[in-house]
Amino acid sequence: MVRSATAAAPPVAEFTWKQRLTPKYFLLLIRDNPVANLLLISAIIIGFFHGWLKLKFPGGITVFAYDIPLMLALAMVMMKGSPGLPLFPKSRTSSALQVVMGICIVYGLLPNDIPLLVRLASFRGWALVPLMFLLGYHLFRSRELLNFYGSLILLLSVITAIYGSRQDPEELRRMAEANATLENIMKGSFYGDEEGTKFRVFSTFVSAGAFGSTMAYSLLIGLARYSNKGHSIWSRVFLAMVLMPIAYGIFLSAARSAAIIAIIAVLLIAWYRKSLIKFALPPAVILGGLLVASNLSGSSSMSRMSAVADPSALMSRVAIVVRPAFNKLLDYPLGGGLGRSGHGLPAALGYLAGRYKWRPVDGDIGRVAVDFGIIGLVAFSAMFISGTRDSFLWMKQLRGTELDTVAVIAGAMFVTAFISFPTGSPFLAIPMGAIIWFHLGALNRLYDDHKRGLPVSVTGALPTTPVPELKPGRRPLPKAAATSSPLVPTPVVPTAPTPVVAKPKRFLYHGNGSKPGPRA
């Protein structure tokens, strides 16, 4: 009886930190689509400094400076695609995304009083960021590339957190007198408590809420890496030092939604690592240090952040977003058309709001209700629920594999955004909206390649021929051989000696047929 066996996957050669600092490593990562990668990197950098750029260089070009490289990167990826794979992958999230895109197109073509330019701007706001799911699916073919983007996000978060800690509210007040954009930002950058009016730091972002939520998601990336069992003690110390200013940035922003995101992220990662008590210790130490620093500096942000533990305060925050959405839905159950809420309309085109019946609301739930009505709420909810279900499935399937860390980062990002969706705009914010979506698309691609038996590391060869779809009952394809690279040597795989099997004897004719037997 013959037994079928699949080829064992070769171990993945890890890069050293010295190799990661060389240009060869970077070129190796982006070799598949360098232009799209460079455009995406530039978009992320611009997204982190978008508020600062709008203050220093006001104008229409700066307003769209973040969107233009994103659109170009998406176009590059969609034109090139992936050999043997459809544009939209086969997953629940992908199917729901196609329905949402179709609804956006239909509502954009409805005859009404909304100007065409407003509809186009709103379509950009609703469709561009979720379509980053496709960019992630077709661009990220290795976990090292996704790790590189995670390191870039952590670096930018540290820089913006340090910059935010040095912001002077009095200097900003003086600057706001001559800058209309800064004046609008400053209106939402203060809060009152028993000690008087306090300043909310917004760093280089367009608002304190955007700054705080970005720091919270960056904290998620750092904590997921910190919890990786493969890290040495010195790597953990370095990550802890990186996380300190990022966590402090959350307190500087005084954003309660950011605190909720950080708490959910810690719980999700602890659940994934199956070590709730052990994993809760490092965040507790960091929190204690920040509490001491906050008291020494005289900051009262902690009093505002402590409202997160108050259920009544949390419910009131949700009610601020949900109640207006419900009221608009009762008045206009089928919505008012793409752009009715003004979502996606930049300040440079604000004059167009006076040319139609604009219905401004707070939060993405309200904006969906105003633009698309019940149909849109059902479609968007289905997309977010599908993404959450897929995230849990992919995380569970990849637990304990070489994709363990990138899986928990991408999956926890989307799940956290879904939980915090009723209080704000996590899926469409700048820059985290695009980052959340392309992480989920990348997770979908890496999961599919892992199931097909294809390499998920840049040390493996990328597929150049159409890949047959993996069906139940079929044996997975063997992994491609590792390509030779001057940067990373091909790992040596110890092989067991080939067992020597005795050849069967030939049976001659003995007079009793062809079977062996005693001689006559």
Description of the molecule:
The protein is mainly α and 520 residues long. 59% of the residues lie in helices and 2% in strands. The protein has helices at 17-20, 23-29, 34-48, 50-56, 60-63, 67-80, 92-109, 116-128, 132-139, 143-165, 169-176, 180-187, 208-226, 233-253, 256-273, 276-297, 301-305, 311-331, 363-398, 404-419, 432-452; strands spanning 190-193, 196-199. It has a two-stranded antiparallel sheet with strand order 1-2. Helix 7 packs antiparallel against helix 8, helix 11 crosses helix 12 (180-187) and helix 14 crosses helix 16 (276-297). The radius of gyration is 27 Å and the shape is globular. The two termini are 33 Å apart.
- Sheet/helix structural class: mainly alpha
Low-confidence stretches: 1-12, 461-486, 488-492, 505-520
Q: Please estimate the helix content.
A: 55-70%
- Major sheet: 2 strands, antiparallel
**What is the number of E strands?**
2
Strand % is under 5%
Provide the gyration radius in Å. Answer: 27 Å
| Run of helices and strands | HHHHHHHHHHHHEEHHHHHHHHH
Quick check: average pLDDT? 79
Using the alpha-carbon principal axes, give the shape: globular
Strand order of the largest sheet: 1-2
Distance between the termini: 33 Å
State the helix count.
Answer: 21
